[in-house]
Automatic annotation (TrEMBL):
Residues 6-184 form the Ketoreductase domain. GO terms for molecular function: oxidoreductase activity. This is 3-oxoacyl-ACP reductase. It comes from Actinokineospora fastidiosa. Keywords: NADP, Oxidoreductase. Pfam families: adh_short_C2. PROSITE patterns: ADH_SHORT.
Length: 252
C-alpha cells in the first residue's frame, strides 16, 4: 500500500491546520501518516483522505515521548513506506502572564513544540538521508516575535526557527530542505480557545484580529496548507532554512 508514492507524516493531524495540511499533501499525491495524541482522533482526517482516493494511516503518539515517536515512525514506514516529508505541526497553548505562568505550563509547551519537533525530525531524518531527499516543515508562529501572555509559546516558536535553520545547514547536503511557516491569526480550535481564555466571543476576537490584517480577513487552515504543500514539493529544493510568514501581510 502506498509504495511508489512519497510518504509524509503530519503531526497534530487530527484537526485544524494539521488536518488541512494532511488533506492537501494527500491531494498532491502523497501517502500520509496522520499522527495525533490518539489514533481515534485521526480517524476523520484519514477518512477524508481515503474517501477522496488517497492513502493514509492514523497513528496515536505524543510527539514529546521518545518511545511513542519511534513506534509512530515505525508504523508509518511499515504501512506506507519510509517517510521523506515531515510536517511538525502538533502544538498546544498554555497562555498566562509571566508572573502567573507555572512551571508545568512552561514545560508542557516547550515539550510539545521543541522536544516534539526534535524527536520527530531525529526519528525521520535517517529515511530522508537514505533517499537523498527530504522535506521538513516546522510550524512556527508570528508569536515568535513576541506576544503578551505567551512567554512559553513565543520562546518555543522562536526556538523552532533556530532549529529550522540549523537542520537546513546540517541536512542540505543530503537533499533535505528544512523550512518553517509562521502563521498569523488562523481560525481553528486553538484561536477559539484563546478567545475563551480572554473571556471574549470568538467572532469579536476575529473582528479585532482582522482589523490589523492587511488582506482584511482571518487566515484559514487551507492558507497554511498551501504554503506547506509548496515547501514539501520536489520543486522547492533550493528553498531551505527560511521562515515564511503566512499572516495576510508583513508580520513585524
Ligand atoms: P489545534 O486546532 O489545537 O490542533 C493541534 C493538534 O495537535 C490537536 O489535534 C492536538 O491534539 C495535537 N497535539 C497537541 N499536543 C500533541 C502531542 N503532544 N502529540 C501529538 N499531537 C498533539 O491547533 P492549530 O491551530 O491547528 O495549530 C497547529 C499548529 O500551528 C500549532 O503548532 C500552532 O502552534 C501553530 N499555529 C497556529 C496558529 C493559529 O492561529 N491557529 C497561529 C500560529 C501558529 P489535542 O486536540 O488532543 O490537544
Amino acid at each position: 500500500m502506498g509504495q511508489g508514492k512519497t510518504t509524509a507524516i503530519v503531526t497534530g493531524g487530527a484537526r485544524g491546520i494539521g488536518a488541512a495540511i494532511a488533506r492537501r499533501l494527500a491531494c498532491d499525491g502523497m501517502a500520509v501518516g496522520v499522527v495525533d495524541l490518539t489514533k481515534e482522533a485521526c480517524a476523520a482526517t484519514v477518512a477524508a483522505i481515503t474517501g477522496a482516493g488517497g492513502s493514509a494511516v492514523a497513528v496515536g503518539a505524543d510527539v514529546a515521548d521518545e518511545a511513542a515517536v519511534a513506534r509512530a515512525v515505525g508504523t508509518v514506514t511499515e504501512v506506507l513506506g519510509p517517510p521523506t516529508v515531515l510536517v511538525n505541526n502538533a502544538g498546544i497553548i498554555r497562555d498566562n502572564l509571566l508572573f502567573k505562568m507555572d512551571v508545568a505550563d512552561w514545560d508542557a509547551v516547550v515539550a510539545v513544540h521543541l522536544r516534539g519537533a526534535f524527536l520527530m525530525s531525529k526519528a525521520v531524518q535517517g529515511h530522508m538521508v537514505d533517499a537523498r531527499f527530504g522535506r521538513i516543515v516546522n510550524l512556527s508562529s508570528t508569536s515568535a516575535l513576541g506576544n503578551r501572555g505567551q512567554a512559553n509559546y513565543a520562546a518555543a516558536k522562536a526556538g523552532l526557527q533556530g532549529f529550522t535553520k540549523t537542520l537546513a545547514i546540517e541536512l542540505g547536503r543530503y537533499g533535505v530542505t528544512v523550512n518553517a511557516i509562521a502563521p498569523g491569526f488562523i481560525e481553528t480550535d486553538m484561536t477559539a480557545a484563546t478567545a475563551e481564555r480572554m473571556g471574549v466571543d470568538f467572532d469579536e476576537l476575529k473582528k479585532l484580529a482582522v482589523e490589523r490584517i492587511p488582506v482584511g480577513r482571518a487566515g484559514q487552515p487551507e492558507d497554511i496548507a498551501h504554503a506547506a504543500a509548496f515547501l514539501a514539493s520536489p520543486g522547492a529544493g533550493f528553498v531551505s532554512g527560511q521562515v515564511i510568514y503566512v499572516a495576510g501581510g508583513p508580520a513585524a
